[in-house]
């Protein structure tokens, strides 16, 4: 049951996490070497270069005490004024929005692949525990969990390239100006524009990186379902259902599986955050936009408004996903109160 | 049961996608393939070129941008003149003729019927507005390349197509108006578009950075995502299409930000990229064997090794000379730059005004040892700061380290992001012992004056003089030469040469090499004419001179 207490608690947690991200990131950037004013001033030259850097420090408030800088930054963040990217000179909100949409597109497709496949293979593994198929699935899931995804991504991209399959970027250059961008999601926008050819191109380009990102959640889902379902299959209500002569698939999918949905949904919430990190490397290898690749590009230039904005949005995303997991838990199991 | 349907649906979707993709592949295979690679994309009626650039775009305000934005600005905006430093000749752009009225006054006559991308026409007022904005922003905020207009007293409108530059002191103004930065002309209507109150209103900058433009160049900005890609579309009303006579010029130019060399190579191989700028140099020969072509462009981008003149032992001139004698200069080009550089001399790159031959230190370990013995310096440790991610700097640093090891000098190589390198360099003025003994600074010019390269050792330039070098004689020489440029150019160059000799004798800073920029391209897809590249414009391809051949 979804209670008011839960909503208040979750909002408070979200607020605390965002504040924590803002303050901690700001302190870390403050302590790290390099002066963000150099980036903001755009590498000034000539007799006024020194003055330009001082003015930039003044504009950014870098000459104020740390606690005042943090206060100003947190205050501006919550009032919706996230400022401009020091490197790209564009509003943070604009940069984050387009990269967030690109990342979400990738992550949603990844989880759309990972969850059903993970559940399906997890069930098979549980049902045939100890058999060859279970051992193979166990080995594969171990490999998927332990192998570095960036390495698999490189190998995969080289393999696809050698087959002549074009997977570079989010959309074919020929199509870049062929659609009107409404949502920023190329999948949705191509459909809105009624361009099936572009829709297919975009899907073909998103599936390989999605498969890489999907490896970890798929493997973890297989493992969790294998373990949890095996336990469920030994519970009394399942044994009773078997004794009533109910079909095996019905017992597994309608009764036993329902019992482990809360655990699976919690797992997806946690792995989603981890997958954002995976997505960062995969985005770079496949030359896709996204939160991860934007962070990678912002860090070397001390673009702290962008770094903080991106991390805060990632934090908020993480909270939203976990809240959805909680809600799924409540819906699937009425005994649960959150 | 519901789960079963979901799984079934997903499987069906995947099958449909696979079939659709196979159909697309088949369609492409039926068309004659002339490229060394196959492209699975459906052919488009529009001619498209994809250019992979190695760095994110730092801005597109034509009066402020002073970094990577040049790649876009040079195709979207135009200056009054272009300058070809190799041929030492000017080429008319927005101005068709110019003449010197007296030492401090020049008249420029503008090209007629030049349209800006907003449909309005080029006027004298537009020229005045654009240049004064660059100058004013620099004077007010110190940002941008507007310092090139310090010489300017005012610009007077003679008539709709003629303007008069009134100078504070004589300068070679045709060189300044052909600057790679800060000399672009645009429509003053942007005041209205940006809802700005005056020419230095911050709203104008934000308007530009949102991806808008009011240039007159052959391409206009269609999509601007500085961290990932920029798309330009051909401007059909550009005045120069008849002159260029290129019916195969690209209609769409996609500038993709691809930082990883491996990704650029992959993109090139699968046909997603047509021109690459940052492929691992070791792989270039393999690509050439596969049918790709290369253009090696001489650039004015060089790498300057600077010594800390305020910290022991690099504060000793003879010690610095010993270090330079210990560098195996004959290996620098082949090992550090893998052949993609030219042997440097002094501080100024080859082909650039003020270049002097034979300002080089020979490789002579014996001489280096003798100097060190005389100085009684041994078993010392030096810190060398380089920019991380610059393959050339990393290789040179390792070469220097192994060479100096022979002399009992240990070199600690510190690779840092550029912003931190800069901070380390500037530290020489605040606390010299915090600054490294040696640091590498890569440099490229704003407009072709030797002063641009030599000013980084001027005692007044505490932002870029990372040596902490203070030599009044040197300062006076380059200041005098700069003032003479507009009166007696030959004499000015002579004094600049003398200043370089002073630096050379002091061994305070030296160019490691003049880099050569390789552009790798698919010849079955594009043809790059000679005019498409100009060493004054780093990484710029003038796409009106590119032909899309398939």
Automatic annotation (TrEMBL), chain B:
<comment type="similarity">
    <text>Belongs to the bacterial solute-binding protein 5 family.</text>
</comment>
<dbReference type="InterPro" id="IPR039424">
    <property type="entry name" value="SBP_5"/>
</dbReference>
<feature type="domain" description="Solute-binding protein family 5">
    <location>
        <begin position="89"/>
        <end position="459"/>
    </location>
</feature>
<dbReference type="GO" id="GO:0015833">
    <property type="term" value="P:peptide transport"/>
</dbReference>
<dbReference type="InterPro" id="IPR030678">
    <property type="entry name" value="Peptide/Ni-bd"/>
</dbReference>
<keyword id="KW-0732">Signal</keyword>
<dbReference type="InterPro" id="IPR000914">
    <property type="entry name" value="SBP_5_dom"/>
</dbReference>
<dbReference type="InterPro" id="IPR023765">
    <property type="entry name" value="SBP_5_CS"/>
</dbReference>
<dbReference type="Pfam" id="PF00496">
    <property type="entry name" value="SBP_bac_5"/>
</dbReference>
<protein>
    <submittedName>
        <fullName>ABC transporter substrate-binding protein</fullName>
    </submittedName>
</protein>
<dbReference type="GO" id="GO:1904680">
    <property type="term" value="F:peptide transmembrane transporter activity"/>
</dbReference>
<dbReference type="GO" id="GO:0043190">
    <property type="term" value="C:ATP-binding cassette (ABC) transporter complex"/>
</dbReference>
<dbReference type="GO" id="GO:0042597">
    <property type="term" value="C:periplasmic space"/>
</dbReference>
């Amino acid at each position: 049951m979804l209670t008011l207490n839960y909503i208040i608690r979750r909002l408070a947690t979200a607020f605390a996490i965002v504040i924590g991200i803002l303050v901690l990131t700001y302190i870390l950037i403050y302590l790290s070497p390099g002066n963000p004013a150099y980036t903001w001033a755009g590498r000034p030259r000539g007799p006024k270069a020194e003055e330009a850097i001082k003015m930039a420090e003044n504009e950014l408030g870098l000459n104020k005490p740390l606690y005042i800088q943090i206060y100003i930054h947190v205050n501006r963040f919550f009032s919706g004024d996230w400022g401009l990217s020091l490197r790209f000179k564009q509003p943070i909100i604009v940069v984050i929005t387009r990269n967030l949409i690109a990342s979400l597109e990738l992550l949603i497709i990844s989880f759309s692949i990972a969850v059903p496949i993970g559940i399906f293979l997890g069930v098979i593994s549980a049902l045939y525990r100890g058999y060859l198929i279970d051992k193979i699935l166990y080995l594969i899931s171990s490999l998927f969990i332990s192998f570095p995804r960036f390495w698999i991504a490189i190998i995969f991209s080289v393999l696809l390239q050698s087959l002549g399959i074009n997977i570079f970027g989010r959309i074919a250059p020929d199509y870049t100006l062929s659609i009107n961008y409404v949502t920023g999601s190329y999948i949705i926008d191509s459909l809105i524009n009624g361009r099936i050819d572009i829709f297919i191109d975009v899907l073909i380009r998103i599936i390989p990186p999605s498969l890489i990102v999907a490896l970890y959640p798929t493997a973890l889902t297989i493992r969790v379902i294998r373990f949890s379902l095996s336990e469920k299959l030994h519970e009394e209500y399942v044994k009773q259902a078997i004794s009533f002569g109910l079909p095996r698939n019905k017992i597994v999918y309608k009764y036993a599986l329902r019992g482990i949905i809360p655990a699976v949904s919690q797992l997806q919430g946690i792995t989603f955050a981890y997958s954002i990190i995976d997505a960062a490397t995969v985005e770079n290898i496949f030359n896709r936009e996204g939160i991860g690749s934007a962070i990678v590009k912002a860090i070397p230039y001390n673009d702290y408004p962008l770094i903080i904005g991106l991390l805060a949005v990632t934090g908020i995303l993480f909270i939203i996903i976990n809240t959805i997991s909680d809600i799924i838990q409540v819906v699937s199991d009425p005994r649960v109160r959150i | 049961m519901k789960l079963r349907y979901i799984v079934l649906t997903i499987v069906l979707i995947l099958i449909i996608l696979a079939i659709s993709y196979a159909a697309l592949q088949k369609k492409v295979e039926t068309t004659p393939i002339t490229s060394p690679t196959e492209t699975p994309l459906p052919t488009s009626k529009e001619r498209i070129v994809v250019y992979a650039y190695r760095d994110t775009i730092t801005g597109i305000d034509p009066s402020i941008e002073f970094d990577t934005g040049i790649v876009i600005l040079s195709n979207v905006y135009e200056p009054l003149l272009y300058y070809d430093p190799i041929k030492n000749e000017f080429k008319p752009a927005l101005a068709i003729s110019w003449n010197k009225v007296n030492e401090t006054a020049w008249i420029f006559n503008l090209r007629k019927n030049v349209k800006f991308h907003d449909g309005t026409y080029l006027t004298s007022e537009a020229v005045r507005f654009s240049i004064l904005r660059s100058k004013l922003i620099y004077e007010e905020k110190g940002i941008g390349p507007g310092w090139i207009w310090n010489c300017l007293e005012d610009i007077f409108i003679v008539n709709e197509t003629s303007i008069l530059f009134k100078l504070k002191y004589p300068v070679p103004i045709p060189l300044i108006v052909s600057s790679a930065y800060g000399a672009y002309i645009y429509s003053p209507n942007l005041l209205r578009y940006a809802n700005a109150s005056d020419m230095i209103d911050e709203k104008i900058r934000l308007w530009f950075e949102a991806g808008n433009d009011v240039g007159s160049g052959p391409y206009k900005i269609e999509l601007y995502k500085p961290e990932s890609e920029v798309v330009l579309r051909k401007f059909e009303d550009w005045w120069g299409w008849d002159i260029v006579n290129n019916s195969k010029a690209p209609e769409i130019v996609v500038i993709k930000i691809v930082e990883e060399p491996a990704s650029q190579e992959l993109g090139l191989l699968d046909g997603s990229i047509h021109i690459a700028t940052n492929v691992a140099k070791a792989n270039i020969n393999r690509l050439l064997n596969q049918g790709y072509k290369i253009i090696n462009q001489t650039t004015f981008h060089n790498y300057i090794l600077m010594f800390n003149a305020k910290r022991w032992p690099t504060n000793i001139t003879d010690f610095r000379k010993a270090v330079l004698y210990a560098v195996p200069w004959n290996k620098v080009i082949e090992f550090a730059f893998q052949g993609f550089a030219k042997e440097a001399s002094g501080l100024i790159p080859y082909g650039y005004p003020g270049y002097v031959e034979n300002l080089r230190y020979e490789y002579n370990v014996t001489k280096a040892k003798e100097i060190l013995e005389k100085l009684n310096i041994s078993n010392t440790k030096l810190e060398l700061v380089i920019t991380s991610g610059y393959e050339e700097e990393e290789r040179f640093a390792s070469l220097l380290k192994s060479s100096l090891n022979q002399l009992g000098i240990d070199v600690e190589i510190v690779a840092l992001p550029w912003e931190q390198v800069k901070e380390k360099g500037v530290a020489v003025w605040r606390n010299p012992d915090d600054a490294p003994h040696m640091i590498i600074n890569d440099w490229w010019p704003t407009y072709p004056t030797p002063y641009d390269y030599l000013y980084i050792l001027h005692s007044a330039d505490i932002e870029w003089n990372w040596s902490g070098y203070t030599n009044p004689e040197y300062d006076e020489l380059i200041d005098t030469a700069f003032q003479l440029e507009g009166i007696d150019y030959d004499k000015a160059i002579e004094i600049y040469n003398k200043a370089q000799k002073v630096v050379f004798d002091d061994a305070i800073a030296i160019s490691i090499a003049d880099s050569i920029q390789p552009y790798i391209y698919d010849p079955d897809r594009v043809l790059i004419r000679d005019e498409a590249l100009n060493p004054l414009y780093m990484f710029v391809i003038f796409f009106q001179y590119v032909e899309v051949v398939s």
